[in-house]
Amino acid sequence: MKIGNIEIPNGAGLAPMAGVTDAAMRLLCYEMGAGWAVSEMLSAKGWIYSQGKNKNAVELLTRLPGEGLAGLQLFGSEPEYIAQAARQLSDIGFSFIDLNFGCPAPKITGNGEGSALMKTPERIGEIVRTLVEAVELPVTVKIRAGWDETCINAPEVAKICEQAGAVAIAVHGRTRMQQYAGEADWSVIKAVKDAVSVPVIGNGDVRSGEDALRMVRETGCDSVMVGRAAQGNPWIFGEIKAALIGADWQPPTPADRIDMALRHFDLETEIHGANRGLLEMRKHIAWYVQGLSGANRFRTTLNGLKTAEEVKAALKDYLEHLS
């Protein structure tokens, strides 16, 4: 698959997730077989207003050596701010710019951004066109099936994005009103694939290698993107990669999970510092131990720990318990 003039490595992509897909997460998923990744979403207007001095935004833009191919995701509803932010950020190491037309969070949609823009396809076209004219990097988009069950317009929006210059379209098969509940409607992904000639990336309910194969078979999509199923499970990319070529794959052992959590902790600390790194890792650790023996008890213990040293020691003790 190509995104513009960029050859995308084989394997699934890591979907953008706010508070999750920072450089540490992207690096680990890339090492485990992800073909590419997309960053956490960055407010274009917020970036411009802060003049690049917002510490959280700067950390969001961090890239780590060996991280692999990644796109920078911007969100907003005003084309001029998106174009201005993209021009300022086009040379910091990301390979393409991704536009967020899919976030269902109320604080985003309440401002007319994210998936709220699915209700105004003409504005989406204006945003894409303005950005394509502003930067040399390839421009991709991420959309939802539509706003609600009465407005399933992903194929229409996809055609508008293609005509405006987008070189790839990722489709989450749920509406905004579904949030992340219910089942993703993969038929919408197929409809988008039938409507456009640029690559289409399927997203929603891919939780295994078999799911990825089934999505490709049923929709004809060019690739798949994994979001929540990668939380605490970067190995899913190796599983998908093996499934795509018919190779064997072995799931991670409990020791693999704990070792990965410890490495992830070190990377988060490198990016965010000790205190913020600890806060960021609480959710990741809970995901890494999910399904393991005594996981609920361990998560309770984890919530009472105050320092990185205590958490790391607890993880090592927990592994001994598992052994």
Can you walk me through this structure?
By secondary structure, the chain is an alpha/beta fold. 47% of the residues lie in helices and 15% in strands. It has 14 helices and ten strands. The protein has helices spanning 23-31, 44-50, 55-60, 79-89, 106-109, 121-134, 154-164, 186-195, 209-219, 236-245, 254-272, 274-289, 295-303, 308-322, and strands at residues 2-3, 6-7, 13-14, 36-43, 70-75, 96-101, 139-146, 168-175, 200-203, 223-226. Helix 7 links the parallel strand 7 (139-146) and strand 8. Helix 4 (79-89) runs parallel beside helix 6. The protein starts with a strand and ends with a helix.
Describe the structure concisely for a colleague.
The protein has 323 residues and is an alpha/beta fold. The protein has helices at residues 23-31, 44-50, 55-60, 79-89, 106-109, 121-134, 154-164, 186-195, 209-219, 236-245, 254-272, 274-289, 295-303, 308-322, and strands at 2-3, 6-7, 13-14, 36-43, 70-75, 96-101, 139-146, 168-175, 200-203, 223-226.
